């Protein structure tokens, strides 16, 4: 799951929760309070497991203009 999606989910829940608390609307407070809570849980889980996920190296073969097919260049991209 992308980090930005989890972050925006949490911020959206917090914004709507703040609005609901200002207006004292229980029907908006409960679902958005839960949404903010679960968004926070996603961010905590993301922080716990981010370093534990192994990253795979990507190897890309770039063709050259040599018609014989010799001389391909190998490029490794690290993230």
Would you mind describing this structure in some detail?
InterPro entries: SWEET (IPR047664), SWEET_rpt (IPR004316). The chain crosses the membrane at residues 30-49. Residues 60-79 are annotated as: Disordered. It comes from Aegilops tauschii subsp. strangulata. This protein has 79 residues and is α+β, with helices and mostly antiparallel strands. The chain has a domain at 3-52. The chain contains two helices and two strands, in the order ααββ. α1 (3-23) packs antiparallel against α2 (26-49).
- Largest beta-sheet characterization: 2 strands, antiparallel
Order of helices and strands: HHEE
How many angstroms does the end-to-end distance come to? 16 Å
Across the major sheet, the strand order is 1-2
Sheet-strand content, in percent, reads 5-15%
Shape: elongated
Helix- and strand-based class? alpha+beta
Overall pLDDT, averaged?
Answer: 80
- What is the number of E strands? 2
User: What percentage of residues falls in helices of 4 or more residues?
Assistant: 55-70%
Q: pLDDT under 50 segments (min length 5)? A: none
Radius of gyration: 23 Å
Secondary structure tally, helices: 2
């Amino acid at each position: 799951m992308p980090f930005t999606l989890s972050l925006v989910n949490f911020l959206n829940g917090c914004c709507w929760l703040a609005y609901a608390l200002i207006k004292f609307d229980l029907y908006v407070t409960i679902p958005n309070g839960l949404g903010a809570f679960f968004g926070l849980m996603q961010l905590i889980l993301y922080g716990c497991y981010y370093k534990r996920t192994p990253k795979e190296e990507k190897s890309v073969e770039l063709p050259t203009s040599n018609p014989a097919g010799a001389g391909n260049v190998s490029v490794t991209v690290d993230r």
